[in-house]
């Protein structure tokens, strides 16, 4: 119930549109009921007049029938127009609203969601939200309001007629749909869950299709998906049976109401308390009133699925971001020295800290390499630096300002990071570069590409900077993709540049050229390298060695190489594994 109320609150900005749509739909439904009833009355009255050879003014009823017919058509057209407009507005804002909640959660608070799952929530689950409005709220309101009009009209003729039809409407409008919804509630919820699971799997499988083929797991995954589709069809069949039970119940209630009208009305006509045409009108009025209830059982059985989708959306919206910006962020500093004071980080649920007692000062313009074996804590350090996470203890300062007093955006504008698997968008090379600076000129793009040793490769392409990079950069080699990501970071012109294994996948010559270019073109800019490669480390001002989350050694390359310490142990190990000179 709480979920339903919360869902209805989402509709509040559209209360006007919803009221308009209900008004148009009500006009069309009443016109339809009126058309049936007036036509019945008219035909019976004409027939009776013919039997007794009496003159009959057919102009007025004919005009009323025409008016009802026009109102019905116009009302239906308006109803479709308004309800679609309201639905699209609702969908557009719901998706925007959900995305606005998602954005501050990335990356930390979303790390346990698969991208397919997020996609399923943003698409399928949001789509289902409209159903409450389109199939439940509006039809139920129209059915209830039109029933009141029908009951009041019948009550003017005879109270028993009104009571009989009212009772049947109550059964058709509430009791049967509730029974159908109760019978189908499990199937409705499971339909939403299985649909979301299938969407998630499809996105995952498509992402990893090449790997699935390589490992021969594609057939197994396909069969598993097929089985889930089988489950979905079975649940939908169950749901359809419940809906069908509800709908046939509504039709039966309508027929029973018409029968009851005749049962009560015929004696009234015989005793002269009711005219023949009025009885036809009352009978058709009762029958037509049930048409408004046709969609109600489906709306009720669909509610469980819609609420399951709403719960999946609320679960996302209710997540708290890992890092919250200060209410009043400080002005960004003018200098860019980095200072870590006794910084520690323990991931939730972890038995040991990923980082502990990190004391580190990187002056503006310094060139520093941070090295350590896999899992030592290098990426965690960078996450803290760009405020993707807060340290569990200690403090980080940028230009003297505690970074938790700065907005995340201000920090990230000043610290550009190129992670190991930097994402490239499915767009052209130029589009990917301009993500960092939309107003960058062509000359600036060329300069950034040259600084990342990528210009000659781009110029060799027939479409140059307008070459599409393929899905997530699939048309580029690993080394090219990495250099494109570096060029993008260089274009951002942030005073601090952090590169995670920038030369991975490059041959020795290109690697050398890349570091020559990076060092020559970024004088004055702080450069932090996370790397295992000697050619890069040798040229850095300082090397910081991390082991199990702690700084265990630091110094210049020649000092550390001579010392029999952690640095030598680390690189002896790498030499053994990759046979580095
Ligand atoms: N989101 C997370 N939740 C829990 N533990 C994490 C998380 N991210 C990293 N860790 C753990 O923290 C430790 C440091 O990981 P980190 O990714 O910082 O290492 P790294 O030095 O960057 O490794 P690599 O060179 O392989 O990228 C590891 O033990 C890792 O398992």
TrEMBL record:
The keyword Cell membrane applies. The keyword Transport applies. Signal peptide: none annotated. It is found in: Cell membrane. The chain crosses the membrane at residues 14-35, 41-71, 132-155, 161-183, 248-269, 281-304. Pfam families: ABC_tran. One of its GO terms (molecular function) is ATP binding. Residues 19-305 form the ABC transmembrane type-1 domain. One of its GO terms (biological process) is glutathione transmembrane transport. It comes from the Bacteria. It is a multi-pass membrane protein. Keywords: ATP-binding, Cell membrane, Membrane, Nucleotide-binding, Sugar transport, Transmembrane, Transmembrane helix, Transport. Residues 338-573 form the ABC transporter domain. GO terms for cellular component: plasma membrane. PANTHER family: ATP-BINDING CASSETTE SUB-FAMILY B, ATP-BINDING CASSETTE SUB-FAMILY B MEMBER 6. Belongs to the ABC transporter superfamily. This is ATP-binding cassette, subfamily C, CydC. The lineage of its organism: Bacteria, Pseudomonadati, Pseudomonadota, Alphaproteobacteria, Hyphomicrobiales.
């Amino acid at each position: 119930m709480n979920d339903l109320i919360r869902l209805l609150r989402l509709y509040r900005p559209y209360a006007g549109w919803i009221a308009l749509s209900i008004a148009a739909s009500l006009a069309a439904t009443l016109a339809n009921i009126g058309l049936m009833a007036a036509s019945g009355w008219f035909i019976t009255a004409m027939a009776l007049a013919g039997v007794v050879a009496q003159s009959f003014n057919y102009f007025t009823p004919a005009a009323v029938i025409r008016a009802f017919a026009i109102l019905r058509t116009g009302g239906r057209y308006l109803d479709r127009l308004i309800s679609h407009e309201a639905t699209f507005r609702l969908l557009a804002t719901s998706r925007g609203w959900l995305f606005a909640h998602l954005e501050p959660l990335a990356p930390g608070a979303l790390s346990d969601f698969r991208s397919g799952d997020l996609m399923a929530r943003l698409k399928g689950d949001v789509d289902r939200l409209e159903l409450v409005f389109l199939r439940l709220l509006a039809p139920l309101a129209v059915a209830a309001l039109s029933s009141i009009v029908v009951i009041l009209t019948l009550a003017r003729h005879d109270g028993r007629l009104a009571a009989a039809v009212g009772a049947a409407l109550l059964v058709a409008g509430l009791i049967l749909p509730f029974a159908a919804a109760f019978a189908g509630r499990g199937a409705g919820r499971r339909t939403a869950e299985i649909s979301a699971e299938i969407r998630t799997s499809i996105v995952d499988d498509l992402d990893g299709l090449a790997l699935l083929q390589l490992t021969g797991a594609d057939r197994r995954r396909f069969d598993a998906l097929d089985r889930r589709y089988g489950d979905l069809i079975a649940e939908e069949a169950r749901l359809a049976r419940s809906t069908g039970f509800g709908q046939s119940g509504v039709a039966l209630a309508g027929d029973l109401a018409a029968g009851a009208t005749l049962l009560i009305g015929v004696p009234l006509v015989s005793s002269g308390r009711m005219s023949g045409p009025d009885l036809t009108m009352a009978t058709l009025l009762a029958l037509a009133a049930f048409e408004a209830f046709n969609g109600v059982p489906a709306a009720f059985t669909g509610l469980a699925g819609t609420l399951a989708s709403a719960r999946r959306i609320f679960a996302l919206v209710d997540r708290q971001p890992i890092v919250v910006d200060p209410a009043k962020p400080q002005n960004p500093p003018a200098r860019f020295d980095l200072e870590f004071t006794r910084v520690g980080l323990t991931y939730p649920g972890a038995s040991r800290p990923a980082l502990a007692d990190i004391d580190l000062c990187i002056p503006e313009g310094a060139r520093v390499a941070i090295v350590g074996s896999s899992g030592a804590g290098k990426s965690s350090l960078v996450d803290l630096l760009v405020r993707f996470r807060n340290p569990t203890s200690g403090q980080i300062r940028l230009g003297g300002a505690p970074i938790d007093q700065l907005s995340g955006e201000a920090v990230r504008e000043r610290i550009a990071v190129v992670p190991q698997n930097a994402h490239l968008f499915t767009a052209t090379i130029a589009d990917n570069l301009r993500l960092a600076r939309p107003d960058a000129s062509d000359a600036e793009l060329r300069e950034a590409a040259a600084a990342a040793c990528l210009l000659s490769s781009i110029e060799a392409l027939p479409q140059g900077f307008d070459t599409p990079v393929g899905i997530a950069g699939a048309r580029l080699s690993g080394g090219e993709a990495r250099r494109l990501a570096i060029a993008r970071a260089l274009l951002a012109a942030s005073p601090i540049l952090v590169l995670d294994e920038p030369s991975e996948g490059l041959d020795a010559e290109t690697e050398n050229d890349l570091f020559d270019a990076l060092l020559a073109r970024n004088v004055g800019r702080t450069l932090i390298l996370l790397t295992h490669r000697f050619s890069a480390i040798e040229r850095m001002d300082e090397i910081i060695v991390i082991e199990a989350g702690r700084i265990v050694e630091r110094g210049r390359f020649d000092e550390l190489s001579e010392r029999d310490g952690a640095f030598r142990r680390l690189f002896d190990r790498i030499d053994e594994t990759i046979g580095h000179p």
